[in-house]
Design brief:
The structure is a single chain. This protein has 15 helices and no strands. The protein has 477 residues and is mostly helical.
């Protein structure tokens, strides 16, 4: 009897366990804002760390081909940032729209918003891919690639052929993040990064493909991550949000709700790309291609320092969206304050760490005979960039609040000021009129980031205070 009872009760236990897994992320998302940010940001941080390790490993393997190959990746990067921005921006729009509906208790609406995001990105990839492939050569030449253009075109054609995989992965990440299920994204990104790291040396050197091998490694790993995320959604079916075309009901309001955040967020990357183009042009003008190689290699290290802040800001988008959907505006203030304060402390620690370790870190980009001469420049670059780390959090967390509450245009305005006013103007002024050259460009980046972050923070505090004072906001869809 006991054995039979155990056997018959087991399916019920499994059903309860599955239901707990489905609702756990949502319970965290709609609970204490501090706990939610910490629990959601943690897996995202680990996932991004894996991605950054891949980016670093990719740059290290490419650097082994010589400084021209590394510089070529730098010339493709501004175009790639626009391309990535489309996926990440739409992802922010999907996260915002879905999390607001979850906060409002509208599960069917959340499913429909997720499917709208997928439909948008499939159409977008069909438009963007041929455009990028067709205009890649004139673009890299216009950006000043010069003698490195061959490398840049070879690498870019492969990367941009996989537009659909990268855009689709961004939307799937956004859906999982919106429901607070960031452990799954962590596993997926980790698997993708490990696969990429393994494939890089095999394809670049083992198969003799050179810089093209780095492109193919990225493409294959992104296709694999899409397959894994779809497996959880379509085969295991243990997620809160259902990816099912039967739940898709075309709705113009839902589409605009996603695009209201997604388009400004995408344009933020366009602005960052525009700033990168200005920076690359200034560096070529005042110092030459090697300065671009230093900037490209050094910025990949800087990205490691950005990981905690990006992860926390993504968590803020979800938490702010849920709080806004539930009309609990006090939670917005708590989430914003907690994220900013925590980020400032993290930034201080990372600044000190970078300052002392810069000479050792730079070695990983200068191990080959073709890149040894970059060591001093990368070391100096890192020791300059670390000065703005404590100021990152106020700006990024404020952008997270704007995007989470559907005010993507506010975040875009701050990014415009930061990139095309503060950074671009400061870099030009210090490098050219004041004659500081390459170092002036670096300090312009630092000054611009600090000024932009302060502007974003002050705007966000005013916005949150106004919401609390009014006691109500626009109706959520």
């Amino acid at each position: 009897m006991t054995e039979n009872t155990t056997i018959t009760s087991h399916p019920d236990a499994k059903m309860t366990e599955r239901q707990d897994a489905i609702t756990e992320g949502v319970a965290v998302l709609t609970g204490d804002p501090k706990r939610a940010i910490a629990q959601i940001a943690g897996p995202i941080m680990v996932a991004m760390l894996f991605q950054a390790v891949y980016n670093l490993a990719d740059a290290v393997w490419v650097a082994g081909l010589g400084s021209d190959a590394l510089a070529a990746v730098g010339f493709v990067t501004p175009i790639f940032m626009i391309f990535i921005g489309l996926g990440s921006g739409l992802g922010a729009g999907v996260t915002s729209a879905v999390s607001r509906r979850i906060g409002a208790g509208d599960r069917a609406g959340a499913d429909n918003a997720a499917m709208h995001g997928i439909a948008i990105v499939l159409v977008l990839s069909a438009i963007v891919t041929p455009a990028l492939l067709l205009f890649l050569e004139p673009l890299v030449l216009a950006l000043g690639a010069g003698e490195t253009a061959g490398y840049a075109i070879e690498y870019g054609l492969i990367i941009f052929a996989g537009t659909v995989f990268i855009l689709f992965a961004d939307i799937l990440y956004a859906i999982f993040t919106a429901e607070g299920n960031t452990r799954r994204t962590m596993y997926a990104v980790a698997a993708s990064a490990v696969l990429n790291i393994v494939l890089d040396p095999i394809l670049i050197y083992g198969a003799g493909m050179g810089i093209a091998g780095a492109g193919w490694a990225t493409l294959i790993s992104m296709a694999a991550v899409c397959a894994l995320l779809l497996y959880w959604s379509l085969v295991r079916k243990d997620t809160y949000i259902a990816i099912n075309w039967g739940r898709f009901s075309p709705n113009g309001h839902t589409t605009m709700d996603i695009l209201t955040v997604g388009i400004p967020a995408s344009l933020e990357f366009v602005l960052m790309s525009a700033a990168a183009i200005v920076i690359n042009s200034l560096l070529v003008q005042v110092s030459g291609p090697d300065a671009v190689a230093v900037y490209t290699g050094g910025w990949r290290i800087v990205f490691f320092a950005l990981i905690p802040f990006i992860a926390m800001s993504i968590a803020v988008v979800s938490v702010a969206g849920a709080a806004y959907g539930a009309r609990k505006y006090d939670k917005l203030k708590v989430a914003h304050s907690f994220a900013v304060q925590s980020g400032i402390l993290i930034g201080l620690g990372l600044s000190l760490l970078t300052w002392f370790l810069a000479p050792f870190i730079s070695w990983i980009f200068t191990y080959s005979a073709g890149s040894t001469h970059l060591a001093g420049g990368i070391t100096a670059f890192l020791m300059t960039m670390c000065f703005f780390y404590p100021f990152i959090a106020p700006g990024m967390m404020s952008a997270g609040v704007f995007e989470g509450t559907g005010r993507g245009i506010f975040a875009l305005a701050v990014e415009f000021l930061r990139n095309l006013v503060f950074i671009a103007v400061s870099a030009w002024a210090l490098a050219v009129p004041l004659g500081m050259g390459e170092v002036g460009v670096w300090w312009g980046i630092v000054a611009g980031n600090i000024l932009g972050s302060i502007a974003g923070y002050l705007w966000a505090r005013f916005y949150i205070a106004r919401l609390i004072a009014i006691g109500k906001g626009p109706e959520t869809a």
